[in-house]
Amino acid sequence: MKADPEERALRRARWAITAQIAVVVSLLVAVAGGIAYAILLSRQHAEADRTLARTVELGPAATPPGCVWLFTPALHAPASTPPAGMPIAGLAATVPAPGDVHTERRPIGGMTYTIRVENRGGVVSQAYFEELYQIQDRSSLVSGLVVAEVLALLAAVLCGRVLACRAIRPLADALRRQRTFVADASHELRAPLTRLHTRAQLLARRASGRDADDLEQLVRGTRELGEVVEDLLLSAQAGDRPEFELVELGVLAEEAVAAEAVRAGESQVRLAVSRERRPYVVQGVPTALRRVLSALLDNALGHTPPGGSIEVWLGVPDERHVELRVRDTGVGFPSADADRIFERFARGSDGDGRRFGLGLALVREVVTGHGGTIAAAGRPGAGATFTLRLLRADPA
């Protein structure tokens, strides 16, 4: 069974939280391991330097500690055969004056040595410290850190998954309750809306003249409301977007204008459609686009005073797009609010406390979901224009 978008989003959020926790824990373990390795390396080098300094100070008369070789111009200690490559003749030049000390680390015969060259009273001594056991200690530490990193990563993934599920559970419950509410409300509204639509149809058939026209608008309005309820119910049940189909935007515009004609007449606002007699076909969801046009006209009627006008214009600016404009002669808005009016419950920038509500924000979401754009332009007292642009579809 295919998961709905909300469930997929929650699943992605759980894994994202788990991954973030795992990354943080892994980084902490890696940083701690790096610090431990640096401390061990520093202490090993310091210990080697102290051992060599003490060996040179005691001289060949004393047996040097294990892993240490001491060379002077006269003899070397211990007396056994030294490793090949020792001593290095060129190092004597690094300490030309009495009291000079030179320390370095270099590989000799496949092994790394710490070397101390010291000029003591004109006698140059070379002491070599073999780092075999130090290298083994560092390798053991690295192996332990790798094991610790793997165990920490596994523990972090497990704990992160548990914490992520706990953190997301309230959101999942809220989404589930929201979907249940929408489904229940839509289901409960369906029956009375169906009865209302049926009775309006019967009255429209019996009426004549102006009453028939008004009742026909009532029938259309109840049908549109029923379509909205059906969309909500399908969305709550399936969670997927409705399938796109060919939509004649010009017909939707004329129907939307006709539906608002009575309200516009009562408000003494002239409402008209300006279009060429050509198809304006786009891909979309008819009910959603119808709600977009209704919201734009509702916004225009709400801000246009008596005696004003509202024009719905349709055109084809190029071969790829269909453009629809809703232009009114209402109160307008500051140009600085051209983008903010599409935000949910945004307030105007002119200090009058004006709120733009939710309708225009939903309009932009629907238009964006159709792959289109919507823009607003206006000036205070000079009306507003909303320009909707959608991809054009081939009527064939």
Word description of this protein:
The protein is an alpha+beta fold and 396 residues long. It has a domain at 241-391: Heat Shock Protein 90, CATH 3.30.565.10. Helix content is 51%, strand content 19%. It has seven helices and twelve strands. A hairpin with a 5-residue loop joins strand 11 (373-378) and strand 12. The radius of gyration is 42 Å and the shape is rod-shaped.
Q: What keyword list fits this structure?
A:
396 residues, alpha+beta, Heat Shock Protein 90, 5-stranded antiparallel β-sheet, 51% helix, rod-shaped
Summarize the structure.
By secondary structure, the chain is an alpha+beta fold.
Produce the secondary structure layout:
Layout: H1 5-58, E1 68-71, E2 76-77, E3 101-108, E4 111-120, E5 123-130, H2 132-206, H3 210-238, E6 245-248, H4 249-259, H5 261-266, E7 270-274, E8 281-284, H6 286-302, E9 309-318, E10 321-328, H7 359-369, E11 373-378, E12 384-391
Parallel strand pairs: 7-9
Antiparallel strand pairs: 1-2, 1-5, 3-4, 4-5, 6-8, 9-10, 10-12, 11-12
User: Taking strands numbered 1, 2, ... along the chain, how are they ordered across the largest sheet?
Assistant: 2-1-5-4-3
Determine and state the CATH class of one domain. Alpha Beta
CATH topology of one domain: Heat Shock Protein 90
Helical proportion?
40-55%
Largest sheet: 5 strands, antiparallel
CATH superfamily of one domain: Histidine kinase-like ATPase, C-terminal domain
Catalytic activity: ATP + protein L-histidine = ADP + protein N-phospho-L-histidine
Subcellular location: Cell membrane
InterPro entries: BphY/WalK/GraS-like, HATPase_C_sf, HATPase_dom, His_kinase_dom, HisK_dim/P_dom, HisK_dim/P_sf, Sig_transdc_His_kin-like_C
Enzyme class: transferase
